[in-house]
Design a protein that fits this description.
This protein is an all-alpha fold. It has three helices and no strands. The chain has a domain of about 60 residues. Helix 1 runs antiparallel to helix 2 and helix 2 packs antiparallel against helix 3. The radius of gyration is 18 Å and the shape is elongated. It starts with a helix and ends with a helix.
Length: about 90
């Protein structure tokens, strides 16, 4: 346990950041899952989910929740899946 005033403050800050980051990471996971599950549906639904997932990833990286390269990699992979799904003929 922290003993100094500055260490106590640092522990409080760390706890706040941890909870904020875990909320952000959960939002990213949910957005990606929703985007991937909508790949076979109507194009407008797919593109909306893809756009929201990209936005969520950009926000998380700009806030420091995830690393910017991590966000770029995930966006790139999601875009690749999106373009493959949108170019494939609908069944």
């Amino acid at each position: 346990m922290a003993n100094h005033k500055s260490a106590l403050k640092r522990a409080r800050q760390s706890q706040t950041r941890n909870s904020r980051n875990s909320i952000g990471k959960t939002k990213v996971k949910h957005a990606l899952k929703k985007a991937r599950s909508s790949m076979g549906l109507a194009p407008e639904i797919t593109s909306e989910a893809f756009r929201k997932a990209m936005s969520t990833l950009h926000k998380a990286s700009s806030r420091g929740t995830i690393h910017p390269r991590n966000a770029a990699r995930r966006i790139s992979r999601l875009a690749k899946q999106f373009h493959l799904a949108s170019s494939a003929p609908a069944m």
